[in-house]
Structure formats: C-alpha cells, structure tokens
Amino acid sequence: MRLKTLKGVSWMRKHWHTSFCSCCDIEGVPVLEEATSALNYLFDPKSVAVVGASTHYNKWGYALFFNVIRSFRGRVYAVNQRGVAPFGYKAYRRVTEIPDDVDLVAIIVPAQSVPEVMEDCADKGVKVAVVITGGFRETGEEGRRLEEDMLRAARRGGVRIVGPNCMGVWSSTSNLNALMAPIDPPDGSIACVSQGGNIGVSILGFAERRGVGLSRYVSCGETTDVQVEDYIEWFGRDPKTKVIIAYIEGVSDGRRFLEKVRRVAPHKPVIALKSGKSEKAAKAIGSHIGAVAGSHEIYRAAFRQAGIITVDDLPELFDVATAFLTQPLPRGNRVGIYTAGGSWGVVATDACVANGLNVVDLPREVIEEIDKLLPPRWSKANPVDSAGDRNWDNIRKVPEVLLRSDAVDALLLLGFVGTSSWYIKFSEDIPEAAKNMMEKDEANIEAMVKWRKEYPKPIIVATFSEEERLLLRLRERGIFAYPTPERAAKVLAKLVEYKQFLEKLGS
Question: Model's pTM, two decimal places?
Fold first, then answer.
C-alpha cells in the first residue's frame, strides 16, 4: 500500500511499522489464526461465564454478573473461589467444573489469578475471554510478566483475549450486556470499539441519552491479543453494522492496522477519535494501557490515507456517525445555506470555509426564483437569509429551490425548526400561539421528510432548541439536528471528505 511522503520520507517505512506492544509476539508462543471468526463468539455467544461473580453489591463482579443475567438470552454461569453465587445462581469454583460448553468468559479477578483462570479456559475450550482486570503491562515488569503468562495459557488452547484492563462487551443481536456499567443504548446500526473504558461508557451513555442506536460495542483495553483493527474488520463483515466508530489511543502494528481498515473503509464509514495530541496526554496513555501513543500528526495523516474519518471530540464522533446513517453522500463541496437569522448564516459561512466547503455563488435564476418568495429585504445571496419573514408557506418553498439547483450539492438548514420550544412553557397563558408554533414546526419537519425523499442531497439541520420533545420528534423521522452551525458544517465536511476518498479509489 502506498502512502504519500512527508518531507520526502515514507511514513510507512520510517514511522508506521513500529510494534508498540511486545506481548503480542512472545518467544515460544504460537501465533493464532486471524481473530475474525472467533469474534462471532464474542458478539453472539450461546453461553457466558463470569469468573469473579460476587455476592457483594460493592464489587465489580456483582455489577458485571447482574448486567449479564438481566440481559443475555443464553446460558449464564457464575464462577468464584467461594462457590457462592449471587441472585440464586449455582456457583462453580473453576471454569472446568461447568458441565456445558462455554463460548465466552468474562474475567474479573485479581491480576495474579488471571493466568490460572486462563489455563482453565484453555482446558475447557472457551472461545473468547474478556479480561476486565487491570494491573498488567501498564503497571511495570511484574504486570508484563503476568500478561505474558496469561497470553501463553490462552494460546495453548486457542482462546482469544479481549483486553485486559477493559470494560466489557455489549451486543444487540444477543441482547448481551457484559459491561461494568448498567447502560443500555438503543438497538441500531453503529458499532463501536474503544480502547478507553471510561470513554466507552461515555459513548454508551451518550447513545442512550440521544437515542442513537448501536449494533455492537467492545472495550478492547490493552489489546494484548485481539487488536483494534480486528474488531473493525469484523464490523465490516457484520450485516447489522452500517457505520463504525472507534476511540483509539495507540495501535500495535501500524502496517497491519492500515491494511485491514483500508479494506473496510470503502464499504462502511470508519470514524475515529484519536487521543494523545499533547506530549502529556501521550505519556498518560502509556500509564493507562501500556502503549506508546506515537506522533498524532502521523496518525491523522495515515488515517486519512486509509479512508478513516477523524474527529476531535465525542460530540463530533456522534454528529458524524449519525450523518452517515441518515444522509446521502454529496456530489461535491458546494453548499447552499438557508437561515432563519442572518448571524447564524454568517457563522455557518465561516465554518464552511474553514472546513473546505464552497459557499457557492447562487445562479441568477435561483436568486430570481427566491425573490418571488421572500420579502425584498432578504439577503439576495448565499447564505439565503429569510430576514425574519413569517410567511411559512413561502419559507418552506425556498429550500426546494436550492435543492433543485445543479449549483448546490448540499443544504445547511439553520433555525428552520425549534421556535415552538420558546412557546411551550407559555402554553397555558397563550395556548393559541403555542399551538400555532408547534403546528408550524411539525409542518416544517414533514417538509424536510419530503425533501429527503425527493432530492438525493444532504440536508444538514441545525436548531437552537434543546427541547427534548422536538429532538425526539426529529429523530423519529430520521433527522438528527445539530445545536450549532459550526457543528453542522463540520458534519457536512466529513461527508464530503469520505466522498472524495471513494472517488480517489475509483480513479
């Protein structure tokens, strides 16, 4: 695979071949086949055992076991040294004592005990072990030795390891919540892999609060065995998944990562939040998961070459993911802006230009057609400012004029819905006004649904309303609204970036 050069030196040759994790290649330990098939047992197991299931509510083993039994449709087993299980379940002292086959084991015991538990998993023929426990290479040489012992035991029996030092796994198709936190996002089409447990919980919580549906989630931790790119590869083959998101702190083998992800990206968008921009953050990654973060500049440049869409923060991660789920790709970067207020149009213009979008000069015939719909004080240019007009029948016709034009590849629709939220709190005092504004918002939503069916162009919506009823109504109709023009513009720019990547592949 070719990557363009930086200052005349190949990134791949100079920077991107380094292995940051020595545990994955240990002398005398066999290298297993690709992990992809084994991940079927991670996301769709028929049986799950929790090693370290606790009867004490203040233990993580209690929380994890509770989440599994309240969610999972298959067989569940509790394993601990005391032989006493919570919630009336039978307890086994070792995995090998379980009389049935076990596909997936979640391990949450002290690090010193994990290699022995892994020996039992190997003897039992367990397919995948999720090691929640921390205290391995991120803690120093003793932790590294324990990690190597754990890996040797797993490789002997062909057990694939998720983690260690992770938060668990969630899967919609098996209704499995093997997480440390009782968070249940809606069923959907976004798959997520996260190297950070707390960031992963934030992602799950954000999805739950915003009503964004997930298909799969895995906290992969230190990636001793199964790597970030293995999960992305599996998501790429998963018919349940349409969009892939990832939180990445570091990768073990840059060449392997890029080769695998580049095979997925042309078929499904891969969106990544990469941490470690600052030197101090990069050092924190080393103490967190025991990995070397590497140059942030090189990561982002290499990601772009592989077709990975990079974002700067968690809100943008979800902004972009929902856009890929709900919007067609634009033909180009020419954007029309329609705004209910002039200042939002100005801010949106700046944001579009900053993100490489072309706020196109509107053709004369488009301006003339809009001139028949808006009052004389309208902007007569792009962005199109309705100048506070209240003739909603005409206002709803303007976006169609822009969408019909061959000069416009995408539409930013700013402040078109949301004003009813100002009136709802006064619905008892001025019921007719509140009712009128809610009806207006509903009519505008229906118009957007109609435009999306008729015009194969992105329609990116920004609203100043955070009123949950309105946002829920929009989501029910497949419309995700963004709270600022800047966020709307960045979302559109990512759609354009992905379209350009696909065009380069076809050229």
Answer: 0.90
**Of the candidates 485, 492, 490, which has an alpha carbon nearest to the alpha carbon of residue 344?**
485
Contact 329, 353 (CB under 8 A): no
Q: Which 3-state string (H, E, C) describes 199-253?
A: HHHHHHHHHHHHCCCEEEEEECCCCCCCCHHHHHHHHHHCCCCCEEEEEECCCCE
Name the maximum alpha-carbon separation found in the chain: 82
The per-residue pLDDT for range 294-322, each reduced to its tens digit, is 566 788 888 998 999 999 999 999 999 99
Residue among 395, 334, 406 at smallest CA distance from 370: 395
Below-70 pLDDT ranges, the chain: 1-34, 276-296, 419-430, 433-434, 507
- One domain for residues 113 and 38: yes
Q: Is the peptide bond before 164 cis (omega within 30 degrees of 0)?
A: yes
Q: What is the CATH number of the domain that holds 239?
A: 3.40.50.261
Q: Is 99 exposed, middle or buried (0-12, 13-18, 19+ CB in 10 A)?
A: exposed
Q: What is the pLDDT of residues 234-262, one digit of tens each?
A: 999 999 999 999 999 988 898 999 999 99
The pLDDT score that the predictor gives to residue 328 is 97
Q: Six-digit token pair at 487?
A: 């966020």
- Same-domain pairing of 157 and 223: no
- Residue 126 and residue 251 in one domain: no
Which string of DSSP letters, residue by residue, matches 263-295?
HHTTTS-EEEEE---SHHHHHHHHHHHS-----
How many structural domains are present in the chain?
A: 3
Does 398 map to a domain?
yes
CA 267 to chain centre: 16
User: Do 312 and 353 have their domain in common?
Assistant: no
Within this chain, do residues 277 and 354 fall inside the same structural domain, yes or no? no
Same domain, 125 and 243: no
Whole-number pLDDT of residue 467: 77
* Closest alpha carbon to 94 in 55, 136, 64, 123: 123
In a shared domain, residues 336 and 315: no
Cα(342)–Cα(383) distance, integer angstroms: 8
Residue 34: both structure tokens together: 């690709």
Q: Which two tokens stand for residue 20?
A: 């940051």
The packing angle between helices 431-454 and 468-476, to 10°, is 30
Residue type, position 86, single letter:
P
On the 0-12 / 13-18 / 19+ scale of CB atoms within 10 A, 456 is exposed
Nearest to 379 by CA among 341, 353, 419, 348: 341
In a domain, 3, yes or no: no
Q: What is the pLDDT of residue 169?
A: 98
